[in-house]
Each structure stands twice: as C-alpha cells, then as structure tokens.
Amino acid sequence: MARLTDPITILKGVGPSRAKQFAQLNIYTLGDLICHFPRGYEDRTRLVTIGDLQVDVPACFRAVVMNTPRTHHIRKGLDLTRVQVADHTGRLNLTFFNQKFATDQLQYGAEYIFYGTLTGDYAGYGMTSPVFERPDAPAVLTRRILPKYPLTAGLSNAVLLRTLRQALAICDPPAEIIPEAVRRQYGILPAERAYQAIHEPASMQEAELAKRRLVFEEFFVFSAGLALLRSAREEKRISPYEHTDLTRFYGALPFRLTGAQSRAIAEICEDVASGKPMNRLVQGDVGSGKTMVAAAAAFLAAENHRQAALMAPTEILAEQHYRSLSNLFAPLGVRVALLTGSMREKEKRQTRELISQGMVDLVVGTHALLTDTTVFSDLGMVIADEQHRFGVAQRSALSAKGCDPHVLVMSATPIPRTLALIMYGDLDVSILDELPPGRQKVDTFLVGESYRARINAFIRKQVNEGHQCFVVCPAVEENEELSLRSAEVWAQTLGQSVFPDLRVMLLHGQMKGSEKDEIMGAFAAGQGDILVATTVIEVGVDVPNATLMVIEDADRFGLSQLHQLRGRVGRGSAKSYCILTTRNANPDTVARLKALCKTNDGFRIAEEDLRLRGPGDFFGSRQSGLPAFRVADLSCDLQTLKDAQAASAQWIDTFGTSDTPEAIALRQRITQLFQRSEGTIN
User: Fold this and answer.
1) Average pLDDT of 121-150?
2) What are the helix (H) ranges across 236-344?
3) What is the DSSP letter of 142?
4) Do residues 408 and 379 touch, judged by C-beta distance below 8 A?
5) Left (φ > 0), alpha (ψ -120 to 50) or beta: where does 633 sit?
C-alpha cells in the first residue's frame, strides 16, 4: 500500500505538468488529494425517459443511437457532431462541439446511458454535449452520485475524480482519531468509511453522513487543540502582580467607566494576580471603550515594573492610540513610546534603545514591534488590538519577546456570546455590552437609487455645516459582470461631476500602506470633505468630524460589517447618519438591511446576522488566527460544533495522555492543523 505522504506523481497520468495543476489546489501528496473534498454532488442515479425530460433540468436517460454520428467542420477550431437517439417515448437530437470522440464511440444501433440538460422551445428541443457510457460499463459518469470538486485551470472534474479513485485504491485513508465511544454517542461514521463515502457515496444520505463525520472531525481536532492550549497555559506558573490597586488610574480618567468596562478590568486584575499567564479576549461593540480597558492593563504592568506592548494593525490606529494614551498616562508617570515602520531610522533606533534599556513602560506600534531589532527589557503585557487582523504566529512572536507575558486581545466585531465562547476556547472572554455616556446614536436609513438626488443634497448639507462624509463602495475597480459601484469610478464621478467644488479623496486596499496612511491622515486632519473608500476604513479610523456614512450597494455586505462601517461616524458631538443604498429589491435582502436600521446594538445585529447568514460572516476563510478548515466552514449547523467541543473535552479528560493509536493520531492532527493556521501548540 502507498502512504498518505507519498507524492501524487506516483499515480498514473500525473506527470510534472499535471502535478503543477494539482499544486494550484495545494495538492502535493496522496493525503492532500484524499482530503480534497467535494463542494457538492449531482444525483445521477435516477433514470427518466426522453418523454419525461424537462427543460433546464439535468437528468439521466437510456436511449439507442438511431443513426451514424456525422461531424461537420464549421470553421477553424470548431467541429460539430450531430446524432439522434431514441427510446420508446420519443426521439432527441444531440449536438457535440469539438468532441470527435463522440463520432468514434457512439455506434449506430447501440444503447447508452446519457446525462445532460434539455434545451429548447416551441421551435424544437435538443441536448448539447451530454456525457455518456455503455450500460454494461462501470458507472463513472452516469447512474451514480457524482462529486463536484473545486478545480483550477486545466484540471477537469473527470480528471480529478479519476486520479482520486486511483489514490483511494492504493492508499489507506487518514488514521482514525475519534474514539469509538464518541462515534457511537454522536452517530459518527468510522474514518475509513467516511473518507471513501465522501468521494464515492452510494446515496445522497451516505454523502451527508460522510460530510457530517468530516465536519465533526475538524471541529473535534480544533476544539481539542484549543483545550490543550488552555491546559498548557493553566499549568504554567509565573510571578503574580502584587500591585493591582487602580485608584490612581481611575482618578486620572476624565469620565466614569461603564459597568462593563469595570467588570472587564476587574477580571484582568484577577488574572494578573493569579500567578498564571493571562490570555483574555475583550470583545466589544463599536465605541464600547476597549482602549480604556487596554490602558488599565498597561497601567497594571507599569505599576508592577513590567513593560507593555500594544500592537495595532495600521499606523493610523497606532498613532491614535499613542496620542490618547500619552495624554492619559503623562500625569501618572507612565512613559509611552511609538514604534512604526514609517518612522525615520534614527527615530526607530533611538526608540528601540529606550525600550531595551527599560526606559519605556508602554510601546504602541505596528508590525515593527515584531522585528528582531526590537528587544524589550522586561515585557510583561502583550495587547493586540483588532485581534482578527493578527495571526496566532504574530501574537506568539510578540509574546516570545518576554517570559510568559500576559496577553490581552481586543475585537470590535460583536459575536454572539455562545459562538465566541466556542471559537475562542483557549481564551477567557470579557464582553463590553454597554456604551459610554454621550456616545452618539447613528440614525440609519435604507434607500433605493431613486433617492440619489436627495443623498447628494444631504452630503452637501453636511459639508456646508463644516462636517465630513464617508462614501463606501464594495469594489475598487469597475466590474461589468457584477455591476457594482466601484470606488475609483465613483470618486471620479463625485469629484468631477457632482461635487466639483468639494474636496473628494479616494482610499482603497490596493494602495501601498504608506499611501493609505497619508490619505487617511489627511482626511482625519480635515483636508478633505468626502472620502470615497472600500472597506479598508472598516477598522481603526477615528474622524470625530465625520457625521455621514453612505454605503453603496449595501446588500453586498454582511450586517456585522455594515455595523462596523457605520461605527466610523458618530464619534464626535454632532448628530450623525448612515445611508444604505441598494438596487436589490429582493424582499429577504431588504428585510435584512432594515434590521440594521432598527438598532445600533452590535450584539443584536450579530445575532440576526448569525440567524440569516450563519457563522461564516464572523469567521471568513481568510480570517487570521483561525485554522483553514478543509470541509467545515462554520456555516454548517452549530450543533455539530457544540457536539464536537463537548466530545473533545471528554477526550481531554479521559484519553488526553493515553498512548492509544487514536490518541497519538489526534495529537499529530492537532499539531498539523495549528501549523497550517500559523500557530503551534507548546
């Protein structure tokens, strides 16, 4: 038998050229191939008669070839083959384009099983390029449940399926990792049957059972990995913080904290005094005051003669934090420094010297904090803002600059508490579900294209009153197929035709980082009236003078993302507004967007988004720090996720240290999963 680690080039028909095509799908070994799962299935098991075929409905039927196929050369590069087939209910004309093999294989008077889609109208019916095979041949293309795979250029579904069948024939599936007791309890297929059935199911029911097994398996591995992370952290012992009195800190604040902020800070105080490394997520709505919670954590570190580092995803956000925290901490004697990539080399060198000498208590920065040249004297607190912008490895790299420092990660994406507790199983979770007094409620309206003149008039009104406006587009460049409003074209239209007398600026994700920072900084400084942008402004943009957010083609965004964008306004004292535009009249789409107009509560919006769209909106496939699941995408039934988490907790308690083949295989899979997602289990 072959091994899962063997290269796919040992398979017939997979040479260097074909291997390069498979590499585009990240398939290099037999294991990669066997774990390349279908995106869906076509049920080709049911045979119908020609008389029962329906237009635009794919179907299998059995028929006899009524004449010798004839091929006509239409023009260079185009050959047309026509043949007529029949059964006892009628006749049907078949057409094949550039498929000379149809002429060679379809024999007059012989019977075949065809699969294709009927087309036509009152002028006549036919079928173009159906697949076919003899009734006495193996069921490869017809009379079966056919998997449909993610593909790449030059690699057809038939080739991939043919290659997969070879691999399954010569290679054992991945080792069983789910204990038999767990499989019985949750009705989970054994690994061998599941990996065979996912690619060659005998029925749609078996395909669903196989998929459920594999979804459960990935969640099981993920949950067990988080449990091991938590277990390893809880076993570590460090010196507890002796000074947790925050009286001076609270006295320096120009406002009273909310109850939620106070609770979160109290939980942090308890963590740092416990003698174990803190690993806490602070999750709060837009404007809920996460920065003050982070400030309290940094102050605790300084009071205990330890350094703190706050890592922000953008230079703009880092500079905002630096300014606000410097002002807060100056009277308290806490020394704050800024370290970003765009600083002059001399400034960076001087700042790094102060950090290494212990002359800085809190360093606020970007990825520049991760460089080898940034050395801390005694790093005791790591704070990551907008945690989903940083992978596990980036947070780990910063933590490695200290000796088991406390870790605080912050997220402004409201997630339903049940989902947060499941997905952040290795973290303790604090939720800020209150807004500070004085935070502006943003009035939100949903309008169609017929309101365009009124939207433009309202934009001008806000600018005339001395305010600024955001206009967000779903695309950077024009796309005729999707018919989406693009930032580049719309900025040009507004600047040249609609508001030629106003200062219209453009910002999108394809710009260089320094250019984005320069534009955003200029707009924040009041040098522009209207900023046309993509979702690059979703996080970390603080422009108190901005009072209007217009979101074009709002139906292209999830509710939680729309809420994040809306949070860019209402940050000052003036009344603020958000206008959602859509050209989509679908009742479900309109109802979804109206839900945003009814509330400013990010957690209620998140619950609604979860109900309507599933968890995928919160944990996209490109979200940093989460494993790249192969088949589970967090948009399946949450119950499967909960079952897998419960089962993995049971495994940790009873089998976690055992040497059974299942336990050993599971620990190997956990390591592989977290390595793929940029992290490791220590």
Assistant:
1) 90
2) 247-252, 259-272, 290-303, 315-329
3) S
4) no
5) alpha
Please give the C-alpha separations between residue 312 and each of 367, 442, 463, in angstroms, as whole numbers. 8, 26, 31
Comparing C-alpha atoms, which of 83, 80, 86, 94 is closest to residue 125?
94
Q: Mean pLDDT, the chain, as a whole number?
A: 86
**3-class SS of residue 584:** coil
| DSSP code string of 632-682 | --S-S-HHHHHHHHHHHHHHHHHTTT--SHHHHHHHHHHHHHHHHTT----
The tokens describing 478, both together, are 């024009």
- Contacts (Cβ under 8 Å, ≥6 apart) of 61: 47, 48, 49, 50, 53, 87, 113, 114
Q: Report the alpha-carbon distance of residue 174 to residue 199 in Å, rounded.
A: 14
Summarised one tens digit per residue, pLDDT across range 503-548 is: 999 998 788 877 887 898 899 899 999 999 988 776 656 788 999 9
Give the Cα separation of 454 and 308 in Å (integer): 49
Can you say whether residue 332 is alpha, beta or left, with left for phi > 0 and alpha for psi between -120 and 50 degrees? alpha
Longest dimension (CA), the chain: 96
Distance of alpha carbon 504 from alpha carbon 491, whole angstroms: 7
* Domain boundary residue, one of 110, 143, 176: 143
Mean pLDDT of 304-321: 88
For residues 256-270, give the mean pLDDT.
94
The last residue of one of the domains, among 599, 628, 652, is 599
- Beta-carbon-side half-sphere exposure of residue 285 (alpha carbons within 13 Å): 22
| Number of domains comprising the chain | 3
Burial per residue of 80-117, b for 16 or more beta-carbon CB atoms within 10 angstroms, e otherwise: ebbbebebeeeebebbbeebeebbeebeeeeebbbbbe
CATH number at residue 479: 3.40.50.300
